[in-house]
């Protein structure tokens, strides 16, 4: 709080009013209908909500998502409840009073308020039953009609992930979304519509690929759910892969639509306040640094749970808020406020994020069901590849097999067991045209295209091994690689024969481990073992540093040679750096992913004249090409750079 | 005896051979023939758990139990999946209870039950479960570690340290370190007869190491003595002699031999190990133990346990941040080092990092249970008749 006071005082001294919010990057929060487990569905927003809005407004939060209860609004078929209308009006009043805007979510499940449990529905499936869908349409149109002229409404959200997970097929989901969208647009054609689910996490939960349905809306959502966190990064939330998961899913969601990072916050109440704050800070800054168009915090108040034991954590992850059960802000709220101030200082009309010219490619086999294990292995391997690229400070996107690679200079294809013939053709054309690719062997037979593109003869899979050995044969060719032996279980190792590529490193027996091949105008690097998968399937929190270093060195070296280098260099792998380029100056965000203090040295090609806090204050003179940025554990810094 | 289809037998062979992908495919082929085959679901649960795919493991194990409530390996897989997934402690407690009833002498079930209770904040019941595990097997190191962690939470490090020391002594990995430093990796299948050993230094030392590995301390000491008769300052022989004294609780003699060995070879890892262990056993010498283990960690820097010993000595000196570094190094070198994981958890708890501590304990449990190969033991018992 002292820091907040200092900042405010500095702004006052400078005689200016700092911007409180960024209209292009809203910070929002979900307010759920019930905050106490003992309450029933009829208590839907039956409380004085104004104080909650006031607390959020104080933290510079500008957006609130509220949830419609079908059960409350339509207790009998076709009969709508006036009390529910009044409570919805009260929400709007609170939003007006605090200059905030609402996302109205129609069909959500929070496992408490029974919002979709219409008793007259007689257990018919609300996802597919024609009659219920017709009733849903009526409800949606009624609510939209009442609110369509109200400027406090920012967007319509068709449903949250818990509700949408109930769809059993892509066709059902797409049809339902199209119906709801049409129903809204008949009444309100202007406001954006969104589908409150993350494409990757919903697919993992339900096996339904929601991307076509998401594309029907105007915004996409990225959302780390509790089950997905357990699947992809189950360890501590303030270190290792867990700190990259939010931005990985965000990058994976960034396709055509702007993306809101949803559900920011920890999933369980057993973290300390400090851990909660660190996790939220990391997620917020990750969102800003990786191209999000806004963020939504998971919940305002902690849910007051019943005193039952053993404690059961709600799988719909809506327990932990930014305020305690009494509505008093927790330390994490100060983080939100600080973040909102930083975000408010970045004018996205003046500053453009430095482009990402490299991408991790998620193979299409990821969408294969069991017994193919690719669907389970690939997302984890891709997350590790993404982390390696981040540790190499390569501005990296996440693409999918089949996406257009034209705008990219380098791609990383981690541990894929198979790619489609079309993808091989695309990769060949990409490399021939000057792009660079790093591909690691994922097991099974190698496609004949491997010989053509990578210049290696595949002689078979040597099987698993327990030690990762690297002997550098061509020092400096793929960065400063070191020879080592490390304990890491490798599921496969491709035996490679000579096919024209240069052997950059071998295993302990001299079998090629890393090769580099000039193909057309580009470079194709082959790794003989699924190193990304090996890290992911081992213990990513305790992966041998030598192996991680090898991976980031190769990625970094290939990306730099291909013209996908970062704008600013950084000497600390744990510090993520994002640059927003302006005409006269740049904004630099630095985020420490480690739970220990670090001083990162940032280096630029240009002579840096001065560095100032992005929120204001006097610049410190640099007069050189590099400068140090001290960062506390899981801390972030926002700097304004001017050049000589 | 429950019958297994030929597809299940194929899947079993593949799973035992570590061919996960092929085993999963074979399980699906078995289910295509009969989707009510508990063995196939149980195997799938194990394979999914092995890949850390907890939701899939839970689904398969639950199905196996629904098909046959006596399917004990499915209970094991289900309990482990709940524990590793986290956040489902109530279900986990129920499963471990169930397994402890189905297989009452299964020590790990009681240890896991205690860990599930602890995660659900039932400390008293947790302690009871670990004590029950120790009644069944007084040498159960993991239960002892857990009790030490419980003591740390409630009584502080001073009262927890004896528990950690005791757990360390029970942990077989400590002797493994000495033999790894000595270069003796396997236990000999026949006893070493000193009279039949060739009368040269290297043969005698090699045989002494093998004898010590086989716990034949007298033969080891005799062979070391023969070397020392010819060269009284032979450091390697002195180090083996020191170890044999140490194992017989003759700490003064062990210390004397180790010091003599180090007088001629100050960085001899085996002597450093023995001296450090002797110091750490003696009240008031823990500062010296830390110094010796610093030297050992340098001399044997690729051995995870050398860093663990250093960390434990530092823990005793309340140098938590240094201990944390040493434990972290050990975990990096060997993620399956249960002793390092519990130690790291202890340091995290002293720093108030409860989530990190919880994670380390979960990983320790993961590796310890995996190491025991319990699934296949229960599976084979079940296949032999447990499922009838």
Order of helices and strands of chain B: HHHHHHHHHHHHHHHHHHHHHH
CATH topology tier name of the largest domain in chain A: TIM Barrel
Determine the CATH superfamily of the largest domain in chain B: Tetratricopeptide repeat domain
Distance between the termini of chain A: 35 Å
CATH class bucket of the largest domain in chain A:
Alpha Beta
Strand order of the biggest β-sheet of chain A: 11-10-12-13-20-19-18-15-16
Q: What percent of residues of chain A adopt helix (DSSP H or I)?
A: 25-40%
Count of runs of 4 or more consecutive helical residues of chain B: 22
Radius of gyration of chain A, in angstroms, nearest whole number: 26 Å
Summarize model confidence as the mean pLDDT of chain B.
Answer: 92
Beta-strand content bin of chain B: under 5%
Number of helices of chain A: 18
Largest interface: A-B, 39 and 38 residues
Straight-line N-to-C gap of chain B:
5 Å
Structural class of chain A: alpha/beta
Chain-averaged pLDDT of chain A:
93
* Main beta sheet of chain B: none
Structural class computed from helices and strand pairing of chain B:
mainly alpha
Give the CATH level 1 class of the largest domain in chain B: Mainly Alpha
Shape of chain A: globular
